[in-house]
Amino acid sequence: MHLDLKPLSECRVLVVDDEEVSRITLLTLLGEHYTVEALVDGNQVIPYCERQKPDLILMDVNMPGVCGLDVCKTLKSREDLADIPVVFVTATFDLDAQNACWEAGATDFISKPVAASTLIHRTRNHLENKLHVDQLVKLTFRDSLTELYNRHYLNVEIESVIKQAVRSQEPIGVLMMDLDYFKAYNDHYGHQQGDQCLRQVAACITNTIRRPQDIAIRYGGEEFLVVLPFTNEEGVSCVAQQILDAVAQQNIAHEKSPLNRVSISIGGVCCTNAHEYSLFQLISIADKALYNAKHEGKNQSRISLV
Length: 306
What we know:
The protein is an alpha/beta fold. The chain folds into two domains: 8-140, 3-Layer(aba) Sandwich (Rossmann fold); 151-305, Alpha-Beta Plaits, CATH 3.30.70. Helices cover 47% and strands 19% of the residues. It has eleven helices and ten strands. The protein has helices spanning 20-31, 45-51, 68-77, 95-104, 116-141, 151-157, 159-168, 182-189, 191-208, 233-250, 279-295, and strands spanning 12-16, 35-39, 56-59, 86-90, 108-111, 172-179, 215-220, 223-229, 264-271, 301-305. The strands form two sheets. A five-stranded parallel β-sheet has the order 2-1-3-4-5, with helices on both faces. Helix 11 (279-295) links the parallel strand 9 and strand 10 (301-305). Helix 8 (182-189) crosses helix 9 (191-208) and helix 9 (191-208) packs across helix 10. It is elongated. The chain starts with 11 loop residues before the first strand and ends with a strand. The mean pLDDT is 89.
């Protein structure tokens, strides 16, 4: 199987070390090969990773405030951040220290003072492995046409989103959407152009949902699903309208539609009692709302609250 991996030079490495000499050493040795940024405080790591996930973290164990081991444990407890490999760079190298690193979820550790060749080779090996794993996950969980997540991802991974909402006692939103008059579009323009249309609409959805925890899925054919954790009714309605507007702004010609352009209908649900519903029950409610949006004229959204 051929894997289309991004170049190593595009990888992002995060260095976390409160010692200036160590930090500068790592930045200097790795900076010419990768995009490298540095933090001095373990408390900064989680917010950084939420904004921009690095491909690898090189972190000191002993830091003031929160130690590297605790930071690593927090990363590994987060489903959205657990796949970031963490390599500890530490001067403490006895057996107990090594076991503590493994138990925290470390991928590897490098001893201080750092040997340049060891650092460079281990960093490259871990990044190459991460790129291969990322690509295999993409092939497993991504729709090849639109690059959105696929139904397999929905079946395997998404139920945990409900559990997170239950634990946090937060609302969760689900949007089900369907292209209007898409069979007529395919019949008139051909399936190749139909595929291009689906890619354009998928891009509209992707560009609209920008939070890391929001999930877009190609549900089947011309149907798309969006899961919006920690989103109230106003937020769910707002995202639905933004997607409607984004598709309209594309102004994709559709001679067989009354609008003479491609449009989309959206049904949604905001659930404030996540412990009472499974994700697939919420999808069913959103699907009924979608039916109402279609029945009432298309190119609109209908949102239910449960």
